[in-house]
Backbone:
C-alpha cells in the first residue's frame, strides 16, 4: 500500500484508491452536470421564444446551423431526452453515489479502502465507457435518442417513428451504466457490512453512510430488474423481437408496451429514492454539525429511511394511473404512496428539531443544507397531488409534474451535492473553498432555481403539457408566453452562476487557504486525518466509542465536540 | 477494546469475497427473475402457445441439462480436491467442468443454428404451433422472442463461467491454491452452481411447461 512506486497512470488514472476513484466520479459528474444543464437552457429557449433562432451566445455559433439557428422538433425531443437521461444517470448518480459514496464511506466507517478496490476501479471505467457510448450517439447522422428519458415503447421501438440508431446506443449505454452501478453497489454494501472499525455498530454510523448504504441496497435489488427490461428493449431494436410492440405496429399478437412501463417503474420509482437517500443522509449529518447538537432522533431517522426503501418498492403504479389501470389497483397504489409521507414527515421533523435551539453556524455547507430543507419541503408536499389519483389524472404529464420532480430531484439533489462538495472540499484537496463566492453562488442558484421550478408548476396547473415543442400553437397556452420568458431568463441566470461555482472549485483547489484538519469541528472519523490522505487511510484502525454527532455534550468543557474515536470524558 | 466485541457479524466466517459473490448471485437472480416473470406475463396474454416439444427438442436439451448437472458435480470434486491439498486433482476437475461448459454451449449453438437455418420439418412444426415461416428466429412471434432472450441470457452466463474457470485454471496450474487457500475456487463454484441452478429453472419454464 505504499505510494512511493506508483506511476502517474496507476495513481491518477487506473487507481484502486477509493479517494481517487471518488474524485474521478465527481469530475465525470460535473462535466455531465454542465452538459445536461446546457441542454435544458436550449429547451427553455425554445419554450420562451418558439421557433426563433438561438442567439449566438447560447448556440456558440456551432449548433443548429442547418435550420438557421432554429431548434427543430426532432432536436427538441432529443434535448429533453438527453437532458433527463444525463442528469439522472451521468451527473447526479456519479457525483453523489460514485463520488461521495467512494470518498466518504470508507473514511467514515474507519476502513482502509473499499472491500473490492479493483472492482471499484472497473466500476468507474465501465461508467466511463457507458458515457462514451452515450456521447457517441451525438455523432450519428440522425442524432441521439429522442423517446424521453423513460423511453416508452412504441416510441423507443424501431417502428416507433424516431429514425436512427440513437435509441440503440442509449439502451446500450444504460445497460453498461447499470453494470457499473451493480459493481459499485456490491462494493458499498459489503464494505459497510464487513469493514466497519471496531465499535462502529450500525447505529453508530453517520447518517450519510446510512443513506449511501440503503441506496446501494436499492441499487442491488432494482438495477438488475431494469437491466432485464433494457435487454428486452435492445433485442426489440437489434434482433427484431416484439416484446413491447402491440397492435397495428406488431406483426403478431402478444407484445405488450405496458410490460415495459411496469418493469421501468418497478426500477424507476425506487430510483428516485436511490438518488435522494444519500442527500437525506448528508443533510441529517450536516444539520447536526452546524447546529452543534446531536441529530434529533438519530435512530428514528435511520429507521425511517429504511422504511421508505421498503415502501418505495411497492408504489410504482402511481406513475401509471392514466394507463387504464383498474381503479381498485390505482387506489391501492395511491394508499401505499401516501403512506410514504409518514416516514418522510418524521425524519423531516427530525431535521427541524435538530435545528431547534441549535447554535447555528452559517458556513457554506450549512446554507446549502438549509436550502435542501426548503426545496425538499416544497417538492415533497407537491408530490401529494401527484400521488392522489383524482388530482393526478388532471396533472399527469403536465409541467406540474416537471416542476415537482425538479424540486425533489434537481433542486434537492443539486443543492445536496453542493453541500457535500463544500463540506468535504477541505478533506479532498486540503484547502478551503472560498466563502464569498460560495455565498453568492448559493443565493443566486437558490432564488433562480425556486423561481424556475415553482413557475413550472404554475404552467402545468394551467394545462401546459410537459413535452410540447411549441406551446404557442394552442390558444389556451398563449397567455403563458410571458411566464415562459421569465422562467427562461431565470434558468439562464441559474446556468451562468454555475460558472462561478466551477471557478471557485478549481481556484480553491490551487489557491484556497490551506485548511486545518477539522475546520467544521465535526466528530466523524474522516476529520481525524490530515490531508492529503494516504493510500490506506488510517495509520491505526480507530476504535469508535460514540454516536456520530455528540456535539455540545454536557461533560465536554474546552470544546463542544470530540471525535468518535475518543471516549467522551467522564462517560467511559 | 471492549467495543470491538460489540460488533456481531451475522455472516460469520464467510470471506468478504464470498459475500460479494453471494450478493452478485442475488442480483443476477433478480435479472433472471425479471426475464422469467416478464416472459410468463407475455405468455399469459397469448391465446395459444406451442405445446412442449412441438418445436424445441426436449431430449437433446435434457441431455444438455444432464451434462450441466455433471459439471456441477465435477466442480464440487475440484473444490474437494484442493481442500485435501490435491493440486493436480483441482486442475483435472476444473478442466472437466470447463469442457462440460464448452460442450453445453456447443449443443446450444447447434440448436440455434438449426433453428435459424430452418428446414421443412421445422416449418411443419411451426405451422402446427400456429407460427409463421420456415425458420425459428427471435422475431418468430413472442414465443421465439422469449425463447431466445432467456436461453441466450443464460448462455452468456455459461460463457462467462467458462471464461471465469479458464481464468482460475491459470493460477491453479501455477499452484496458487492449497488446502488452506481455496477461497477463490469456492467463490468460482458458487457462480457455477448458480448458473446450473438457473438452467434447471429455464429448462423447466421454456422447454417443459
Residues:
Amino acid at each position: 500500500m505504499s505510494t512511493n512506486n506508483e506511476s502517474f497512470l496507476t495513481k491518477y488514472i487506473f487507481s484502486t484508491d477509493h479517494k481517487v476513484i471518488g474524485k474521478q466520479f465527481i469530475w465525470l459528474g460535473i462535466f455531465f452536470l454542465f452538459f445536461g444543464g446546457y441542454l435544458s437552457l436550449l429547451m427553455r429557449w425554445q419554450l420562451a421564444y418558439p421557433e426563433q433562432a438561438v442567439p449566438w451566445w447560447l448556440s456558440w455559433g456551432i449548433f443548429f446551423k442547418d435550420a438557421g439557428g432554429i431548434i427543430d422538433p426532432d432536436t427538441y425531443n432529443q434535448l429533453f431526452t438527453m437532458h433527463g437521461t444525463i442528469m439522472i444517470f451521468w451527473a447526479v448518480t456519479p457525483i453523489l453515489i460514485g463520488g461521495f459514496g467512494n470518498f466518504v464511506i470508507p473514511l467514515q466507517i474507519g476502513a482502509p479502502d473499499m472491500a473490492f478496490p479493483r472492482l471499484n476501479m472497473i466500476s468507474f471505467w465501465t461508467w466511463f465507457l457507458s458515457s462514451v457510448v452515450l456521447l457517441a450517439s451525438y455523432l450519428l447522422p440522425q442524432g441521439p435518442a429522442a423517446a424521453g428519458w423513460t423511453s416508452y415503447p412504441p416510441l423507443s421501438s424501431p417502428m416507433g417513428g424516431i429514425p436512427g440508431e440513437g435509441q440503440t446506443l442509449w439502451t446500450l449505454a444504460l445497460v453498461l451504466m447499470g453494470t457499473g452501478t451493480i459493481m459499485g453497489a456490491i462494493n458499498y454494501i459489503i464494505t459497510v457490512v464487513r469493514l466497519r472499525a471496531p465499535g462502529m455498530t450500525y447505529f453508530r454510523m453517520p447518517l450519510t453512510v446510512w443513506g449511501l448504504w440503503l441506496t446501494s441496497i436499492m441499487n442491488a435489488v432494482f438495477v438488475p430488474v431494469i437491466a432485464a427490461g433494457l435487454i428486452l428493449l435492445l433485442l426489440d431494436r437489434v434482433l427484431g423481437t416484439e416484446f413491447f410492440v402491440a397492435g397495428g405496429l406488431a406483426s403478431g399478437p402478444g407484445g405488450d408496451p405496458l410490460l415495459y412501463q411496469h418493469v421501468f417503474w418497478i426500477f424507476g420509482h425506487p430510483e428516485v429514492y436511490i438518488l435522494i437517500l444519500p442527500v437525506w443522509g448528508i443533510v441529517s449529518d450536516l444539520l447536526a454539525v452546524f447546529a452543534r447538537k446531536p441529530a434529533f432522533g438519530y435512530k428514528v431517522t435511520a429507521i425511517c429511511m429504511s422504511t421508505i426503501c421498503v415502501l418505495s418498492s411497492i408504489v410504482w403504479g402511481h406513475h401509471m394511473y392514466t394507463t387504464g389501470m383498474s381503479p381498485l389497483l390505482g387506489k391501492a397504489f395511491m394508499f401505499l404512496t401516501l403512506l410514504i409521507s409518514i416516514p418522510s414527515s418524521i425524519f423531516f421533523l427530525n431535521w427541524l428539531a435538530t435545528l431547534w435551539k441549535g447554535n447555528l453556524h452559517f458556513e457554506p455547507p450549512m446554507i446549502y443544507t438549509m436550502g435542501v430543507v426548503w426545496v425538499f419541503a416544497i417538492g415533497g408536499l407537491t408530490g401529494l397531488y401527484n400521488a392522489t389519483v383524482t388530482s393526478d389524472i388532471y396533472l399527469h404529464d403536465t409541467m406540474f409534474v416537471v416542476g415537482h420532480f425538479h424540486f425533489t430531484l434537481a433542486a434537492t439533489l443539486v443543492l445536496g451535492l453542493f453541500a457535500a462538495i463544500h463540506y468535504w472540499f477541505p478533506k479532498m484537496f486540503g484547502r478551503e473553498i472560498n466563502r464569498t463566492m460560495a455565498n453568492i453562488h448559493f443565493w443566486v442558484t437558490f432564488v433562480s432555481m425556486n423561481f424556475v421550478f415553482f413557475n413550472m408548476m404554475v404552467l402545468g396547473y394551467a394545462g401546459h403539457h410537459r413535452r410540447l415543442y411549441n406551446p404557442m400553437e394552442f390558444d389556451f397556452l398563449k397567455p403563458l408566453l410571458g411566464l415562459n420568458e421569465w422562467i427562461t431568463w431565470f434558468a439562464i441566470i441559474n446556468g451562468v452562476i454555475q460558472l462561478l461555482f466551477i471557478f471557485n472549485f478549481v481556484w480553491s483547489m490551487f489557491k484556497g487557504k490551506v485548511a486545518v484538519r477539522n475546520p467544521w469541528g465535526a466528530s466523524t472519523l474522516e476529520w481525524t486525518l490530515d490531508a492529503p490522505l494516504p493510500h490506506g487511510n488510517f495509520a491505526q484502525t480507530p476504535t469508535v466509542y460514540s454516536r456520530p454527532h455528540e456535539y455540545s455534550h454536557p461533560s465536554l468543557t474546552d470544546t463542544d465536540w470530540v471525535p468518535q474515536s475518543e471516549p467522551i470524558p467522564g462517560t467511559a | 477494546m471492549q467495543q470491538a466485541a460489540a460488533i456481531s457479524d451475522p455472516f460469520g466466517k464467510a470471506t468478504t469475497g464470498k459475500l460479494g459473490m453471494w450478493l452478485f448471485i442475488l442480483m443476477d437472480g433478480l435479472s433472471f427473475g425479471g426475464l422469467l416473470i416478464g416472459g410468463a406475463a407475455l405468455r399469459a396474454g397469448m391465446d395459444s402457445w406451442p405445446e412442449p416439444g412441438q418445436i424445441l427438442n426436449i431430449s437433446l436439451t435434457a441431455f444438455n441439462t444432464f451434462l450441466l448437472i455433471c459439471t456441477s458435480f465435477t466442480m464440487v470434486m475440484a473444490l474437494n480436491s484442493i481442500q485435501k491439498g490435491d493440486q493436480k486433482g483441482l486442475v483435472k476437475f476444473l478442466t472437466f467442468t470447463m469442457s462440460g461448459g464448452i460442450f453445453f454451449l456447443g449443443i446450444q449453438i447447434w440448436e440455434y443454428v438449426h433453428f435459424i437455418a430452418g428446414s421443412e420439418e421445422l416449418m411443419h412444426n411451426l405451422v402446427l404451433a400456429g407460427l409463421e415461416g420456415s425458420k425459428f428466429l427471435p422475431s418468430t412471434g413472442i414465443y421465439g422472442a422469449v425463447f431466445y432472450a432467456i436461453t441466450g441470457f443464460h448462455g452468456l452466463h455459461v460463457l462467462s463461467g467458462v471464461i471465469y474457470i479458464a481464468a482460475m485454471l491459470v493460477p491453479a496450474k501455477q499452484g496458487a491454491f492449497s488446502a488452506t487457500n481455496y477461497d477463490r475456487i469456492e467463490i468460482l463454484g458458487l457462480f457455477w452452481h448458480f448458473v446450473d441452478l438457473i438452467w434447471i429453472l429455464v429448462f423447466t419454464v421454456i422447454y417443459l411447461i
Notes: The CA atoms of residues 30 and 502 of chain A lie 9 Å apart.
